[in-house]
């Protein structure tokens, strides 16, 4: 097995920068979901009552920054061509990726609105404070909470289907779709 040495994408192969972005964003989203579910059930006297939501919000804001950089990188350095042939498979792959980005944004924005609804900014790891948007204080905290939960749930279900599609490419179609997202060299 040979590992790619590229940093940038070619028309056939993902480079390490895109691969790094993909797996960091995936790890972040897949980790924040169980953390969110766990923390909302904590009681007021639980030692983690403050701490877990602080971590959840801080990691969420960093994930938003990462996603933003990822999209800039995607504009500068487009993804390799899709390894599917039929028109409907191409449309499904592109549409699926677009939906993943859309759900990610919805979860991140609703999380921000939910957390700043009391008019206070978000303290990110004692590092910096992301301010609340003026004029939005006291607005629709419940709605943002509802959107956050359903968008997060949909994102995780979609990510599961997306992972199944990747495994199908690998084990059934036997094409290098998954290999090239793992940095395994597929071009000569
Ligand atoms: C992909 C990123 C994220 C995922 C997958 C995620 C997931 C979740 C989940 C599953 C819950 C539990 C919801 C419930 O049971 O009602 C939750 C709660 C929460 N999330 Fe996120 N979250 C993400 C990003 C963020 C961000 C960026 C923020 C804020 C900056 C945030 C702030 C919150 C807050 C404040 C709660 C508690 C809501 C409550 O008390 O009802 N989340 N999150
Ligand atoms: C929350 C988790 C995940 C998110 C949000 C996500 C998102 C994405 C997005 C947006 C793309 C398109 C990349 C581009 O811009 O060209 C992509 C590609 C890809 N993802 Fe994921 N992904 C996640 C998890 C996974 C998992 C768990 C696997 C594997 C089991 C996986 C395997 C792949 C592969 C193989 C590609 C390349 C597809 C191609 O070459 O056409 N992803 N992912």
Structure report:
- The protein has 188 residues and is mostly helical.
- Helices cover 61% and strands 3% of the residues.
- It has 5 helices and 2 strands.
- The protein has helices at residues 16-39, 51-76, 87-115, 141-171, 177-181; strands at residues 122-124, 128-130.
- A hairpin with a 3-residue loop joins strand 1 and strand 2 (128-130).
- Helix 1 (16-39) runs antiparallel to helix 2 (51-76), helix 1 (16-39) packs across helix 4 (141-171) and helix 2 crosses helix 3.
- The two termini are 13 Å apart.
- The structure holds protoporphyrin IX containing FE (2 copies).
- One protoporphyrin IX containing FE binds next to helix 1, helix 3, helix 4 and helix 5.
- One protoporphyrin IX containing FE is lined by residues 29, 32-33, 36-37, 40, 53, 56-57, 60-61, 63-64, 104, 107-108, 111-112, 114-115, 122, 145, 148-149, 152.
Keywords:
188 residues, Fumarate Reductase Cytochrome B subunit, 2 strands, two-stranded antiparallel ribbon, elongated, single chain, binds protoporphyrin IX containing FE, 61% helix, mainly alpha
Gap between N and C termini: 13 Å
- Unreliable runs: none
Proportion of strand residues: under 5%
Strand order in the sheet with the most strands: 1-2
Structural classification:
mainly alpha
Reading the helices and strands in chain order gives HHHEEHH
Shape: elongated
Ligands bound to this protein structure: protoporphyrin IX containing FE
